[in-house]
Amino acid sequence: MNLVSSKKTPLTFDTIEPGTGLAAALKKSRADIIGEVAASNLRGRGGAGFPTGTKWNLAAAAHVREGGAKYVVCNADEGEPGTFKDRVLLLEYADLVYEGMTIAARAIGATKGIVYLRGEYVYMRPHLEEVLDRRRKAGQLGTDILGTAGFTFDIEIRMGAGAYVCGEETALIESLEGHRGEPRNRPPFPVNTGFNGQPTVVNNVETLASVAAILSKGAAWFKAFGTENSAGFKLFSVSGDCDEPGVYEFPLGISVGDLLETVGGRNAKAVQIGGASGHCVPASEFGRKLAFEDIATGGSIIVFGLGRDMLHVAKNFMEFFVEESCGQCTPCRAGNAKLLEGIEKLERGACSTAYLQELLALCETMQLASKCGLGQSSPNAFVSIVTYFQDEILGRAASHAG
Amino acid sequence: MLVSQQQKLQDEIHELVGRHGRTRAALMPVLQELQQKYSSVSDFAMQVVADEIGIHPAEVYGVVSFYSFLHHEPRGRFQIRLCQTISCDLAGKPRVARQLENELGIRFGETTADGRFSLEWASCLGMCDQGPALLVNDRVYARVSPEHVHRIIDDCRKVFGAHAAQPAHV
């Protein structure tokens, strides 16, 4: 029952000497720091893939409202089913993550940083506080950081409390402000109106660690990994029916098949990419690439072996969304519950094709009309399983049920 | 609850809110500390927190009822949360769940009569490569098999017997 490291391959992050990224950043002007990050084509590692340089530019240009400050928030609310790479980064590379936050603060002119750590990861807190203390003592946090006059920045850790939706950046900010984690309308975006109404950059844990690496080794080095539209290396959290589940690093653009080969899952029937909110990819499409231009992902890879019942998989995902929907908007609150009912109908072998078509139409409504990414993406798994495994899910005998 | 207990809790919350800053943004950390200490946040505690921060108690209740790690109803001294999401499910969650119910004599969502154990489902704990996983309060257990369940519960009982106080539900 002991916890073991999930790392299955050496990570490029191992080759980054802590401190070198921040030192390089402090020699640059603010515009040049953002320029370097933009030139690296780094895109958000949480899954949405927004260009990090663009986000920082917007926050740098935004004005602070009276008496306030800009914020850098590290989104450590890693809740997507099948994702655990941030656990490894926070436990083994916390310095790089904090360094990325400090670089971001320098770039946009922020004075306060917050790590929003999911409640399930509370056991990491003592370690993360310890690293913060060490960095304060080493002058890497606090006032006049590393002798740079006027550069003041510190980081505090705030805990989540078991709500998947708080991984959505505006819900995360609501939670920080002491509210229910209900996403806001966007715009205004957090880069203008974020925590306490102030300009706020919210970046994923891995994005921030990547920033430290980019400043240390340069944008050209980073771009040498990956494809033209998907620069860099990425961590993948692999679980399910494979020989070696764990955290792997691959350059973006790797095919699903090549990944499966490495992790010992070559007999898979299907792979869920991007977690519960992602897509289910059948064996016939294992040639597709993991990259922003093909299948964009935050790195969750769940492998399903030949014997798995895909309807059971769809049901598990839908139960998750029914539980985790914040309930604020109708398409998501009612839609997910309706889809779960539909899946139970399929389980009983009592679903007509016409009703299945209606469920798919409901999926489209949810994708279009839900307020945030949760409801917009929760039908994805159901749609792809119905599309690729219709044979398997229609006309079930009663023995399948339950 | 005795008046003296109420007063004690009031003083404690006053100190707690003072430490986290008397603003709305202090609400979550304050509630989390109360939750950790008392295994739930009572009506009375919510009222006092609301008064201290200067918001309506319904706002506090709204927050407590939203988050699955904050509870309005008293929970056991040991909250066992079994991950129910897909990777742990594929790795054998259903049998671990059944054995937890067998050992504790309660179903998911319930608390043992002695107030020691609560059994709950959790969404993905981020231990997908080492499932089935569960949390006992802050502690993670990975690769749990049905035969481990008894030992995990036994560990808790030992802690309880040695130096844990009675759960203080106020």
Notes on the protein architecture:
The complex is a heterodimer of chains A (402) and B (170). With 402 residues, chain A is α/β, with parallel strands linked by helices. In chain A, 41% of the residues lie in helices and 12% in strands. Chain A has three domains: 12-223, Rossmann fold; 233-304, Ubiquitin-like (UB roll) (Roll), CATH 3.10.20; 310-400, NADH-ubiquinone oxidoreductase 51kDa subunit, iron-sulphur binding domain (de novo design (two linked rop proteins)). Chain A has helices spanning 20-26, 30-39, 52-61, 85-92, 94-108, 125-137, 169-176, 205-217, 219-223, 256-263, 310-324, 330-347, 353-369, 373-377, 380-388, 390-393, and strands at residues 71-76, 112-117, 154-159, 200-204, 233-240, 246-251, 270-273, 279-282, 300-304. In chain A, the strands form two sheets. A five-stranded mixed beta sheet of chain A has the order 6-5-9-7-8. In chain A, α11 runs antiparallel to α12. Chain A is globular. With 170 residues, chain B is an alpha+beta fold. In chain B, strands 2-1-3-4 form a four-stranded mixed beta sheet, covered by helices on one side. Chain B has helices at 3-20, 27-38, 43-53, 57-66, 86-90, 93-104, 146-163; strands spanning 78-83, 117-122, 134-136, 139-141. The longest helix of chain B is centred in the first third of the chain and has 18 residues, at 3-20. In chain B, α1 (3-20) packs across α2, α2 packs antiparallel against α3 (43-53) and α3 (43-53) packs across α4 (57-66). Chain B folds into two domains: 3-66, Arc Repressor Mutant, subunit A; 78-163, Glutaredoxin, CATH 3.40.30.10. Chain B is built from seven helices and four strands, in the order ααααβααβββα. Classes of the chains: A alpha/beta (402), B alpha+beta (170). The interface between A and B is large, with 56 and 43 residues.
Give the key terms.
heterodimer, A: 402 residues, alpha/beta, Rossmann fold, Ubiquitin-like (UB roll), de novo design (two linked rop proteins), 3 domains, 4-stranded parallel beta sheet, 41% helix, B: 170 residues, alpha+beta, Arc Repressor Mutant, subunit A, Glutaredoxin, 4-stranded mixed beta sheet, 7 helices, elongated, disordered C terminus
